[in-house]
Q: What sequence folds into this?
């Protein structure tokens, strides 16, 4: 059973667009929600993370929106660039780490 | 340079032949973990360790063993590999005040024939 549901599976946007990746969870014991970015042939790398007592967090062009009542959170990438083309994973943590199934993002020049 | 290293990076083996994938970190992290990555399934945690001599099962522990005799090392052991263990494996570590921010190794691609 997938603890964290992620959508869409893939996403193609034009340069400058704002891709949005969504995740949903059920377990209210989760207390930390990171997003990881993975380039081909590399391990995932932490991009940005949020705690459930915060509704939004921005770091550069990356923003997490968090809706605690709906048990959903999303990643927005402002002014997307071809270099942002990668696979993105959301995760939820409570001792154990649970990852979403990943979203393959392609940013077209 | 702070890093997590894994060896080997690529391995092709046959069913039933015991193998070990090593993982080492130089950041003095307490928490170490193993994941497998499969298409459409994302990353799934196999085992994790909160500290030396403390290990716990993750989501998919069947067919795997781990040990944590030293803080820096966390080897993954497949006693009798089977084809359904063909996957991309990642080791990760974290610790200190931000124990939940994992640093991942470069991955080990394992094929079991």
A:
């Amino acid at each position: 059973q997938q603890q964290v549901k992620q959508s869409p599976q893939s996403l193609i946007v034009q340069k400058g667009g704002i891709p949005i990746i969504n995740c949903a969870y059920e377990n209210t014991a989760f207390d930390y929600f990171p997003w990881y970015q993975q380039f081909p042939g590399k391990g995932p790398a932490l991009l940005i993370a949020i705690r459930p007592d915060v509704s939004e967090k921005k770091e550069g062009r990356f923003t997490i929106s968090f809706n605690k009542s709906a048990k959903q959170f999303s990643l927005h990438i402002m002014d997307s660039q071809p270099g942002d083309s990668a696979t993105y994973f959301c995760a939820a943590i409570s001792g154990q780490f649970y990852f979403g199934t990943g979203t393959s993002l392609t940013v077209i020049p | 340079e702070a890093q997590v290293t894994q060896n080997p990076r690529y391995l092709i083996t046959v069913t039933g032949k015991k193998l070990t994938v090593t993982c080492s970190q130089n950041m003095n992290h307490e928490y170490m973990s193993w994941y497998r990555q499969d298409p459409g399934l994302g990353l799934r945690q196999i085992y994790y360790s909160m500290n030396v001599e403390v290990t716990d099962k993750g989501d998919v522990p069947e067919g795997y063993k781990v040990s944590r005799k030293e803080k820096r090392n966390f080897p993954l052991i497949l006693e009798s590999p089977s084809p359904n263990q063909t996957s991309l494996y990642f080791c990760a570590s974290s610790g200190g005040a931000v124990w939940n921010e994992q640093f991942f190794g470069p991955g080990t691609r394992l094929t079991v024939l």
